[in-house]
Specification:
Elements lengths: L17 H14 L10 E3 L6 E3 L7 H17 L6 H10 L20 E2 H17 L3 H17 L2 E2 L2 E2 L5 E3 L2 E3 L9 H18 L2 H23 L12 H13 L5
């Protein structure tokens, strides 16, 4: 999508009007996706013209975010967003595998896998739909997605954890051992599970969220019982190497 193909969005008025801000976001929710309903993750500015470009988060992660965004704009402004049906269709079509998880398709910039980040964003959108459009069908869809994840999450007694960010071919990739696992993946799931529990007025999602929370709480209790240890010393020159690595990430990328 080129800059010339997209109309210039209106400018906000001074002050903070939430309804006005929601109306302004409509512009991006309509023009920030391609003709197939896939949102754009990147905008390439180092070109003769600014150009939107796809990347791997577009298929699941951004699809869930944009779908939820269209529902929130509709709720706040009272006017539907024209791309909401297309985004909803794409998001629900992601549940095409027998295991009930969402999967990225195999393309030149992504490979066939299920990632925790994308799944949580779609789960958020499904919970939002169940809140704004209450029905048994929408309720069952949220619970079915949660139960699909519950089947693949390892547990040990009353503690459960997410061992990785990526699930593919019936197993976790680059897994981290339990009961620690991948803390970031675990935290990503806590909020949509608690949100689903509130929206559905159902204890099941909250019961699934509680075991991952038990691990850090138990670790804090264990640390209180252990004597204080002397901090580890950094190797000579560590700060210099750290600064070089930090600055390397700040350098502009060239085509």
């Amino acid at each position: 999508a080129r800059t010339a193909d997209v109309p210039v969005p209106p400018q906000p008025n001074p002050g903070l009007d939430w309804i006005e801000r929601a109306e302004l976001s409509r512009h991006h929710l309509v023009h920030g996706i391609d003709q197939n309903g896939v949102p754009y993750f990147d905008v390439l500015l180092r070109r003769p013209y600014a150009e939107a470009s796809h990347s791997f988060p577009d298929f699941v992660d951004l699809t869930g975010r944009y779908w939820e965004g269209t529902m929130l704009v509709h709720e706040m402004t009272g006017k539907p967003v024209e791309t909401e049906p297309l985004l909803r269709q794409r998001a629900l079509a992601l549940f095409s595998e027998p295991d009930g998880l969402t999967y990225n398709p195999a393309t030149r910039f992504s490979y066939h896998r299920s990632d925790v980040t994308g799944f949580t964003r779609v789960l958020f959108a499904m919970a939002r739909r169940a809140e704004l459009e209450p029905s048994d069908e929408n309720r069952r869809a949220v619970l079915a997605a949660i139960r699909a994840v519950k089947k693949i999450v390892p547990s040990e007694g009353d503690i459960a954890w997410f061992p990785s960010m990526v699930y593919k071919g019936g197993e976790w990739e680059n897994l981290l051992p339990g009961p620690g696992g991948d803390a970031f993946a675990t935290l990503l799931f806590i909020r949509p599970l608690t949100e689903a529990s509130v929206v559905l007025n159902d204890q099941e999602p909250l019961d699934f969220a509680r075991p991952p929370l038990e691990r850090p709480a138990r670790e804090r209790r264990d640390r209180r019982r252990r004597p204080l240890e002397r901090p580890r010393t950094r190797p000579p020159g560590w700060h210099c190497r750290h600064r070089r690595m930090r600055d390397a990430h700040r350098r502009p990328l060239h085509d």
